């Protein structure tokens, strides 16, 4: 054997998975398609009034306290530059009638925060730094897989260029269009929402007070997430045609459109990063594991971003799979199918419930049938009035991500 485990995918979840396997005693090979930076340099430390267009990363993630604890265990979280990290202490969710809302408060839940907003670029660099010099890790980059062949006691992964790697287990952390998943012939069902998430960052006139805002509108779901200083990150999940229109607007026009859509909640906005747009879809896999294969992150599930749960689900995959492999007891073969089924059983229910909730919300708030608008706004008001329900939602959020409105 060249190694025990091959992790395919060098994104956030793949890097975290390789790092989480360090205490397991398993030899790990990480296949990463990205080239290493020639001279890794620290991100500039930003003053609160920083407005540089190139200073902020437009792609940010809401990391739950539970997953922040996981990243701390992996030696990743302490290395972040916390002058670039904002905490979410309060969340306000509004219906499309201008009056219905639900409010989540970390203070009422007896916690310091509901989530942390972290730039994707900074999180990626912190994970890469934690992996540098990890014992038992062979990091191949840039490298692309070409073929995967199964034997009774191993898999043989061939790379472009001809090199072959023998391992007991392959972990697919290679995204929504997973190559590993296709090679393992794991069935998948997909549904396009015919929407895109438009993301950009803005400086705001009024302080956000570490509050995340979300509006359910006829044209989609608009969220403003707090960044350090008077800055916010926009995530506007909207129809493809509307997203294309927004992405083509100039800075002042886009800022004005967002101001109008959020009813001036944060005063005048000024764009500080150009908008990007990402297609939205629902991906359900028939199985999370196959003989000598396990899937994590977007390779295992893709959901609508309205609850901020995507990467949090992936990090929970990492935690559970690493735990199963670390505590495998007398099972010497880390690719044993019945061992991998423990991971699948541990994750299947949580993933299915989150897919059901986010897909249901996406359909409910995009429906234009007469009476549906009244029903969803009434649901917001009712949930806001029932304290035990709000407490349960916050408790779930502290583990996985931002609260999900029922």
Automatic annotation (TrEMBL):
GO biological process: one example: ubiquinone biosynthetic process
GO molecular function, one term: oxidoreductase activity, acting on paired donors, with incorporation or reduction of molecular oxygen
Known cofactor(s): FAD
The FAD-binding domain, residue ranges: 159-348
Pathway where this protein functions: Cofactor biosynthesis; ubiquinone biosynthesis
Cited Gene3D superfamilies: FAD/NAD(P)-binding domain
Gene Ontology CC terms, in alphabetical order: ubiquinone biosynthesis complex
Keyword set, alphabetical order: FAD, Flavoprotein, Monooxygenase, Oxidoreductase
InterPro entries membership: FAD-bd (IPR002938), FAD/NAD-bd_sf (IPR036188), Ubi_Hdrlase_CS (IPR018168), UbiH/COQ6 (IPR010971), UbiH/COQ6_monooxygenase (IPR051205)
Family from the record: Belongs to the UbiH/COQ6 family.
Protein name, entry field: UbiH/UbiF family hydroxylase
Organism expressing this protein natively: Pelomicrobium methylotrophicum
């Amino acid at each position: 054997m060249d190694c025990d485990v091959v992790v395919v995918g060098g994104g956030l979840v793949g890097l975290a998975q390789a790092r989480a396997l360090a205490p397991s005693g398993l030899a790990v090979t990480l296949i990463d398609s990205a080239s290493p930076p020639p001279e890794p340099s620290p991100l500039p430390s930003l003053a609160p009034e920083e407005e540089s267009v190139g200073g902020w990363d437009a792609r940010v993630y809401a990391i739950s306290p539970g997953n922040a604890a996981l990243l701390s265990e992996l030696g990743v979280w302490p290395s972040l530059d916390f002058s670039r990290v904002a905490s979410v202490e309060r969340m306000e969710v509004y219906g499309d009638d201008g009056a219905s809302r639900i409010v989540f408060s970390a203070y009422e839940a007896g916690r310091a925060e509901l989530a942390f907003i972290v730039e994707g670029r900074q999180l990626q660099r912190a994970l890469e730094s934690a992996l540098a010099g990890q014992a038992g890790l062979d990091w191949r980059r840039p490298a692309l897989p070409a073929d995967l062949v199964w034997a009774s006691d191993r898999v043989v992964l061939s790379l472009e260029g001809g090199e072959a790697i023998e391992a007991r287990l392959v972990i697919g952390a290679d995204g929504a269009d997973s190559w590993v998943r296709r090679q393992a012939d794991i069935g998948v069902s997909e549904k396009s929402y015919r929407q895109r998430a438009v993301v950009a960052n803005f400086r705001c006139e009024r302080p956000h007070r570490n509050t995340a805002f979300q509006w359910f509108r006829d044209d989609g779901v608009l969220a403003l997430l707090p960044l350090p200083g008077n800055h916010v990150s926009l995530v506007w999940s909207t129809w493809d045609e509307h997203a294309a229109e927004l992405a083509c607007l100039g800075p002042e026009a886009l800022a004005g459109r967002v101001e109008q859509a959020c009813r001036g909640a944060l005063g005048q906005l000024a764009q500080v990063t150009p908008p990007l747009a990402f297609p939205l879809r629902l991906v359900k896999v028939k199985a999370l594991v196959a003989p000598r294969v396990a899937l994590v992150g977007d390779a295992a599930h893709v959901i609508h971003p309205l609850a901020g749960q995507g990467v949090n689900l992936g990090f929970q995959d990492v935690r559970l799979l690493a735990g199963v492999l670390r505590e495998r007891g007398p099972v010497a073969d880390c690719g044993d199918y019945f061992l991998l089924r423990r991971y699948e059983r541990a994750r299947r229910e949580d993933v299915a419930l989150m897919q059901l909730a986010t897909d249901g919300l996406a359909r409910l708030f995009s429906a234009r049938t007469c009476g549906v608008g009244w029903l969803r706004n009434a649901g917001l008001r009712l949930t806001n009035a029932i304290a035990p329900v709000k407490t349960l939602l916050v408790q779930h959020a502290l583990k996985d991500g931002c609260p999900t409105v029922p």
